[in-house]
Fold this sequence. Notes:
Radius of gyration: 20 Å
Strand content: 15-25%
Keywords: Signal
Oligomer: single chain
InterPro entries: Peripla_BP/Lac1_sug-bd_dom, Peripla_BP_I, TMAO_TorT
Largest sheet: 6 strands, mixed
Subcellular location: Cell envelope
Pfam families: Peripla_BP_1
Domain Periplasmic binding protein/LacI sugar binding: 48-328
Amino acid sequence: xxxxxxxxxxxxxxxxxxxxxxxxxxxxxxxxxxxxxxxxxxxxxxxxxxxxxxxxxxxxxxxxxxxxxxxxxxxxxxxxxxxxxxxxxxxxxxxxxxxxxxxxxxxxxxxxxxxxxxxxxxxxxxxxxxxxxxxxxxxxxxxxxxxxxxxxxxxxxxxxxxxxxxxxxxxxxxxxxxxxxxxxxxxxxxxxxxxxxxxxxxxxxxxxxxxxxxxxxxxxxxxxxxxxxxxxxxxxxxxxxxxxxxxxxxxxxxxxxxxxxxxxxxxxxxxxxxxxxxxxxxxxxxxxxxxxxxxxxxxxxxxxxxxxxxxxxxxxxxxxxxxxxxxxxxxxxxxxxxxxxxx
Length: 343
């Protein structure tokens, strides 16, 4: 039954290539099971003040989430304040930022946590509702979560490699991001589940912050230890590092990305990356704003919702996928948006 559910999710994710915002969202019951849920509209009855916390904006994943939030803030006529922690495992910084949100007068917190747990969150936020964005902390204070299970973002690339390899052996370097943060362990678990019983083999796991220099150093060290690596599979930052490093190698690396970035998109189009998933980050940013508004207005909300997962290759990637996944070229982070009603 477990295998059937996983196969069904993979099949559905492929259908997600044709998904638009007029179609169903996914309502996740756990990392394997989901229901389809039609996206419902709402209107803001007040100029709500929403304060969003991100791990970092140096990763274009969160830049695209930021773009979606800014778009939704404009659409709904609410105020948005954005604070970034500068990296993962920055609990103390994000705790101080919650205090800054409260001092600003926030009505709700949109928490993209830099850690897997957030101790004493209830005491910190008081009566402010918390909407979890992307990274799960499993805290009872959270009213609702917007995000695909990170397990799935590792499972889909693993399953793709099993099919792509056609039964031939593949040696994979796994680079899922920072240790115990940002869904790294969940992506690793999903990847392992997908390749179980196949000829796809993980020969090393390199964990580190989603920083290009950090990922490049990890990759170089791994290649010294394992010069026979066939595939690098990991975060978009790891994929970007692998594209750069691959130019210096006699044996070209095959690259798979667990999520989409602007550079990964270009790599797909040029045939330098064989596959990437997208959890449609722009759309997720918009959803987070919509969910926060509904919570503040006492409207019913489902927990654990997301757009469909897109499975992208050179053959099926096109500009239609950009609108709901990536911020436009030249977009710069928006740290504060003030509703036109207040200007």
